[in-house]
Amino acid sequence: MASVKVPEQKVILCGEFGVGKSSLFRRYAFNTFVTSTNRQSTLGLDHFNKEYNVNGKNIRLQLWDTGGMERVASITSSYYKFAEAAILVFSLDNAASFHVLSQHLLDIVTYAENAKIFLCGNKSDLEGDTPQVTEADMENFGEQCH
């Protein structure tokens, strides 16, 4: 009996170093959370496959994380190639990480022109920090992307 190939959907995480892409990755892949004292930087590329059943069909979701290296010229096009979706991740307590997303967006539309794009403000759980990125900032960014 021939095996049935499960359709794959590649999802990439994009954003600056330290915004929490790897934390999102670990939560999705392993359902774990690493505290800031035990966190290690991602070196190179990391990816994880997970299968889901959607409306009676199996789908394999591939989540890719670069540790903030996706803008390095040697991996840019291969990282984005065949991506079905891109998650732009920024830290709510770091306005600079939000303002550089337009550069990541440019790479997405250049190398993965059909990818669906999602915006993810991370680190909302930090105590005592006032968010430096407002909902209005995020809405304006979304409107500019259309």
UniProtKB/TrEMBL annotation:
For whether the record's keyword set contains GTP-binding, the answer is: yes
Superkingdom of origin: Eukaryota
Q: What keywords appear on the UniProt entry?
A: GTP-binding, Nucleotide-binding
Which InterPro entries does the protein's record reference?
P-loop_NTPase, Rab, Small_GTP-bd, Small_GTPase
Read off the CDD domains from this record. Answer: Rab
- In this record, what's one Pfam family? Ras
User: What GO molecular-function term can you cite, just one?
Assistant: GTPase activity
PROSITE patterns (alphabetical): RAB
Q: Which PANTHER family match?
A: RAS-RELATED PROTEIN RAB (PTHR47977)
Q: Under which name does UniProt file this protein? A: Uncharacterized protein
What organism does this protein naturally occur in? Homalodisca liturata
